[in-house]
Amino acid sequence: MSSNSKEAIILSDDWIRHALAEVDLSALAGKIYASSKTYGTDPSQWPSTIRNSMALCSDDYLMPALQVAYSLANQICKEEATGKSPPLSVDWVDNIVVYINNRVGCESMNMNDDGGRRDSLDSLAFLGSLGFDPSDAGGDNFADNLFESIIKDHDSTTLSEEERDEGIEGGCGDYIRAQFASSLFNTNDDNDGGLGRDAMQRIYSLGVVFYVLFSGGERPAAHFSTATEVVEQKLSGKSDTETEELSQELSEDLDPLSFDQAPIDLYGELSILDGIGDDEYVQDPLGDNNFDDAPQHPNPKKRHSSQQNRNISNNCSVPVESLREKGLPSTLCDLVSNMLDCTNATLSGEDSYQSMSDVRSDLQLMLDNPNTFLRDLDMTKLSTTGAQFIEKTMFGRNVELSTIKDAYRRSLSGECGLVTISGTSGTGKSLLANEFGKFVSAGGGIFLSGKFDQLQQGKPFSALASTFDQYCGILLHEDMASTKKEVAFQLRSILGKESYHLTKIIPNLATILGSELPALNNSEDCINAQKRVQYLLCQFVEVISSSSSAPITLFLDDLQWADAASIAAVNQLLFAAGPLSRRNFFFLGCARETDLQWPGVDILVAGGIEIKLDCMDEHMLNAMVSETLCLSPRLTRNLSNVIYHKTKGNPLFVSRLMCSLNKEGLLRPSLSRRRWEWDMKKIRSRRLPDDVAIFLTDSLGELPDNVQWALFILSCFGASSKSAFVESQGLDRSILENLEIAVAEGLVDKIDDQYRFAHDRIQEAAYNTIPAHRRSIIHFKYGLELSSLLIGDEDTSASVLFTAVNQLNLGGPPAVDDESHNFTAARLNLRAGKKAMEMSDYETAYSYFDSGISFLRKKHWQERYTLSVELFTLAAKCALTNGDHTSLKLLIAEVVVKAHFFEDKLDVLYFETCALTYSYRLAESIEKGLDILSKLGIEVQGTNVEVRVQETKDLLSTHTDDEILNSKQMIDPTMIIAMKFLGKLEAGMTQIMPKSVLYVTSKIIELSLTHGMSPVSPIGLAYYGSYLAKQGNINEGYHYVKLALSLLDKVGSRENAGEVILVCTQVKSYVELLQAALEYHREGYSAAMASGDSTQAVINMLALNASSFFAGANLQRIQEQCDNNIQMCEERKQLIFMVQAQQVQRTLSKLIGTGEEPKYSSEGRDILASNSSVLRSYHYQTAYVSFIFRSYDDTIENIEKYFAFQETTWGILLLAHAVHAFHTGLISFWVARKSKEQRWYQRGNQSKLALRKWAESSQWTFENKWYLLEAEESFCKNDVETAKTNYEKAITSAKHHKFVHEEALAHELSAYFYLELGKREQSAEHFMQAHEKYLEWGALGKCDSLLKFVEFMKKLWH
Predict the structure, then answer these.
(1) How many CB atoms lie within 10 A of CB 103?
(2) Are 176 and 170 in contact (CB under 8 A)?
(3) Which stretches are transmembrane (predicted)?
């Protein structure tokens, strides 16, 4: 025993007396109305029976007493397992010792009134029976010695100090435990360990002990031959005074409800129901008002299985009723009663215990969950409200919940935050997710939730948009004013005018941003509007997360009904690189297991953790039923087995079945027994379908017809609808009244004036109550009625529009009975499709246009020409955006053949050109574009580039910059579409026909200055400036790229901003500080993503990565950025750019020293083998790495292959041109010095002259490079002094201009120069400086290589 803990050890009788005496009755007086009203609020004035009953029922006594009871049962269970058991011939009550580990100080239990040691253990005979030698007792060690005697040879039942400290606090100590004396277990009985006579007798004997414990020390009368023995036992050894007091107490105990006292009302109003028989409470619907085993006594002790058992007068019935009269909980009285049912080693009641372990388990339940398994049920509430079964409770999902919590915590550290929950319908997926939501909210996180709906799939972004809109609605509350202001400020700063697109899907956001929000041109040609919204949503999540300083968790339910746009947006939130940080976002989704094969869900599942929920097994189901009915699992096991075999453990099926059984009276609360009871025979014989859906459908069939019809109407509009909307249909004014009946039945929830089905299976069951052909007609009818509410185009609610059109489409063309309705349905689908395009949901928009086409009649091209052109053209645009080239091809063919005018075909022909460009069929795209332009009278090709350049210069010279920026907008539709074709030609020709780019550029400028500016106009100026810069006129080119950037904000659209910023930034890098200029690519990425142009977004990020490398940024950071770029390319299927990024990744890996080789896919290997641009990049990267690591043969092999591709370079100026020229120049001088071949010297000199020219425009960026090439050239010429001077200039310039990597390279090449001269000290100094700078750059691999070379040279020198 620990020296710093105290053990109070006393006999059980003494503990009971003192524990009851220490209960603070004054604290209970105000809580028990009946007693305080009758006897006053001073407990000292109460009769002893009242005080005794009050103390017995208080938690201060009851919970410690339960702990004592559990300890005794646990000891017997463990002893039985070893073959030992206490003798049945001994009175167990007198062989129990209670000890308490207390910190508060309950020494009074071991003290006399005068402060000395209590002498309640002074009987030597009794101490000897405990196995304790009285001669060992001495002084303060008395209790400790007794303690050691009690626990001797029982280490298995001895708790550690930590366990004792964690015990129940109550009564008079912090931890209470009891044990039988060890001497009781010294002899082995014939322990049968099962249902034999001795086992049952032990349960009975322990039941006697429990009776004494919970009655406050009374011995049950049946435990003695007569009541006289009780008195004699009590009075034995007492003084006269004690005898008189005890006699009075016993008389009160034996007659607890004496005639001269008022009745004790411990149950409050419930007591008036005690005399009501169960058959007076529930009428059996089958005509049998009496259960086969229903008790007839108003306060029965147990149920009997037969008439014979009902007639048996059990010898424990009277004392257990005495416990009930004291107000003890019914479950505790039943426990004692069921133990005493084992009298005479027979099972006299069907609830009787069959093993000691069952007793222990029941006690443990009462201790762990007293509100469920100990407290009496509120029978008054149950009798009025009926059963409320478990549909909102989570059972047996703690492991899964922990898995989600762990994934969430990892996501806060940067890991992928994605969990999907799958399972059959009714397994509790949504309940598990919402339980996790409580955890997130409690931790300060933001938990957003939404639900997809099978009948509302036509609404753009469906659950995703409504979820964010609800959050914005919360921000509009007054107490969220500061957060709202911060969100508005950040969104305006980050997104600018692009935030307009978010307001189309998040209406409340428009209120947050305010009236100053500018509108954008709805006719702009967004390359991929869905990717634009995905990016904007990423920015929105980042803003609300940073504004609230909390991580965002998004939960979307029923993913099997999710629209593709929402799934794509979630993927973007999870995987997109760039501004969004994953640690701010966690996604949790639920989907039915059978529907997880849907492609959109597969994308999500591939990136995170999938949790599969199965139905409950028999054990878990019994635990659920047990807790639901507040009964021990042993009592509910038979019922649970029947329910399991009928439901296969499906939680939804179980809950609905139990509600049904309760409704039918087969499962009901018993007022007399204060617990649930059931008719097992009838439940077992009831036939049920195997599927929960069929069961629900059958159950709905039992409802009144009006209620069924109301549920069907509600189901037609999805999982939920506002009451005002349902009532507005005017179909049946009593619909709301009938829905209220459904609410009372638990089929529908009403939350904030909104009706929502309690489960989607219930919605499906209600929907299926009407045959499919009738449903179609009803849907179409509802759609027409709703469409009558659509007046005007501007003020119409988008929600009503989508709902009306969805109803029409659910009906479909077969439901049309009037030809005019075909036109109405097609026109409304066109309108809904346009609205969906405004919301950037092109998948949904396409479905509307496709449905509209299906409503058109056979001669629609003649009868409804304009409507037909619009539907087919916009459907083609959506198909292009969605990447559905098969549908696009069919739609284009239809328009080309059926359209009456060439102008009506231009849009679909443009879409065809775009599709060819996106498929990298650039030659075909260029040919198609030139052909269309020719038919429009616009000729692009020319014979003399110089003449065209001069013509463009002359044209531009007639306009000032201000005149260009303030030019009129282009309004001619033909010219607008022609400009779009020219823009596509510009991008394609730059890659494969660089010499022809200028012709397209000049034509764009010409048409812009003649017909007005369009969104394509900035592209013309950007490419023109870049062309001039590449030809050597950098300053003039720089002027025009700045003009192009200024024009972006003047043309009313930034749809081409990503491309314009990319081209312009490359030119800026030749004039402005490189370290500052490269940051423009971040702006280009954001602009491209905001317009949905993922290709230009990828190129901008690759350019940023390359520019950061050229600027000497830390290699580890560049590598992280490169990894993100590769992931971004892979996610967007940009395979060519991904392969190029992997080449850069290989270079970084070599420099850093990890040596990892890129893992190319099969498609990547094909690109690497066939694409000339990729091959050129590959050979440059390989030659550069070989040069840095001084591998001469590999360097010369790859640089030769690089020069072979030089003629295919792009027609615009890129920063890569200067960097390549610098590195190829250094390589050329190195090879020239070794090979003495003149051609290498000439190549090096060409690079040097180019760097000298560029150094004139940007001394900061190019001066050090030019000096280093001058030094290497002088080294080739053996001009030692000039070489020395230029090496020092190169080092100084690189250091001054913050190019640490080129400072390192200049030191290294200087070291080789001095090494060649034989000047070891200077060489060693430069090697050391090179090593230091390479280390600063992060090139650890290069540092190791350099050290090895220096070590090798030292050995040679010595």
Answers:
(1) 13
(2) yes
(3) 1210-1232
